[in-house]
Amino acid sequence: xxxxxxxxxxxxxxxxxxxxxxxxxxCCTCSVICMSVCPAxxxxxxxxxEAEFKSILxxxxxxxxxxxxxxxxxxxxxxxxxxFNTGDLTISVNVLYNYLEANTKVPWEDLRYLFGEIxxxxxxxxxxxxxxxxxxxxxxxxxxxxxxx
Length: 149
Description:
Elements: H1 2-10, E1 13-14, E2 21-22, H2 30-37, H3 41-46, H4 50-70, H5 86-102, H6 108-119, H7 127-140, H8 143-148
Antiparallel strand pairs: 1-2
């Protein structure tokens, strides 16, 4: 998974709405989702840690795209049907912005917990699905991602 993110970062182009790095070849729905929920350009630039915010926002959009796309595969994607929607992503973006503004260091553990156990994990009832969600977030949301982008 980390290889995909590295390829995406290496062959990246900027999302036309907000400047978040995205590559349609590797994350086809990411840019569509990103455009529908991204904060305005002035909000992106208003964040005191703009580069980190954009990098983590990309990871969050990618994560949302993955968990949403897995629903298409029925029981091979998720053991149960979960109502993930863009509202989960929108709220997560707001939480991300607030946490980055309030902390001097990126609170990786806190963000993974909030997104994986509360925002998205609040829908998940199966233990194996919850484990998968946590694993995705461990891969997509880590300090290495900020250094890649």
